[in-house]
Amino acid sequence: MSITAQVLILFIVVLIGVLCRKLRYFTDETIRGTTQIVVNITLPCLTISNMQRPFAADVLINFLLTLGLSSAVILVSLFGTLLLFRRRDPARRAVMANLEAFSNCGFMGYPIILAINPDWMMYAVAYNISFTFITWTLGVSLYRGGSGMDLRRALLNPNLISALIGFSLFCMNLSLPSIPAQVLSMVGGLTTPLSMLLIGTRVCGVHFADFKDIDYHLAAALRLVILPLLTYGLLRPFPLAPAVAGTVFILTAMPSGTMTAMQAELYGGDAVFAARAIAYTTLLSLASVPVMSMLL
Fold first, then answer.
1. Is 57 left (phi over 0), alpha (psi -120 to 50) or beta?
2. What is the Rg, in whole angstroms, of the alpha carbon atoms belonging to the chain?
3. Which of 13, 60, 108, 292 has its CA 20 to 30 A from that of 124?
4. What b/e sequence results for 43-78 when a residue is b if at least 16 CB atoms lie within 10 Å of its CB, and e otherwise?
């Protein structure tokens, strides 16, 4: 089955999520609870489970290379957006920078990577490490005028902790006993269907009348088209392993991450704009991500 077909299957599950929301099988309360389960339980289990592989020097090198490239892409996106929208109100500018720099690389990105090639998950974890650390340090500081990094939140994030556990087991060439390994695999396997269903519930309430502000369209164009294509073009001349280049590219093509809305609410950004922009980019990604996956 082609990569595009696998990605399209995931988005059919998103449509089932839309139907579930319409039928009120998903309520606001169940959406919040299911989201907490995915973020704090199934995603960490999936991370550790998919990093259970024999140690190999080339995998380690590619992991570190992905970590470096991911950090570079995120930082360039962050500061480039700040420069591009320097005339905006500070609260709006901080949100736009975060929307462009931080994609939905875990909640939505992991299922997409698994559909493309499960062996790439190791490198998706590297991207997520960069995402988590930078969003809770530099990302948060933008809302606070360049100060007040929330390092504690970064270090205590369940997905960062699980990534470090998985990476440590990989480097020490340690395999978990059969029963814990199967439990992690089973629970982690819930991530893809639950994530896609939840994304469906998020795009269900999108009304195009809410998006008259041109900044919504600029944010979507940058996040879903311009930044991924720039990343693709810049990476292509280098002799990178397909897993590294493909992972960095496709995770950059994800819609804006939901963390931006939460941080905007916590730290005084334009939270309403952030929430709507995330919903808007997520809806448009139903078309953009399958198209971008054709470049792999």
1. alpha
2. 18
3. 13
4. bbbbbbbbbeeeeeeebeebbebbbebbbebbeebb
Cβ proximity of 112 and 196 under 8 Å: no
pLDDT bucket at 144, cuts 50 / 70 / 90: confident
Q: Where are the alpha helices (DSSP H) in the chain?
A: 3-22, 28-37, 43-50, 57-84, 90-101, 109-116, 121-134, 140-143, 151-155, 158-171, 178-188, 191-203, 214-221, 227-235, 242-252, 259-267, 271-293
Q: From the CB of residue 145, how many other CB atoms can be counted at a distance below 10 Å?
A: 10
State the sign of the Cα–Cα–Cα–Cα dihedral 265, 270, 271, 275. Answer: negative
Show contacts of 23-28: CB within 8 Å, 24+ apart.
26/197, 26/198, 26/201
Question: Which CA distances in Å does 273 have to 170, 233, 277?
Answer: 41, 30, 6
**pTM above 0.85?**
yes
List, in sequence order, every residue forming a beta bridge with 103; answer none if it has no partner.
256
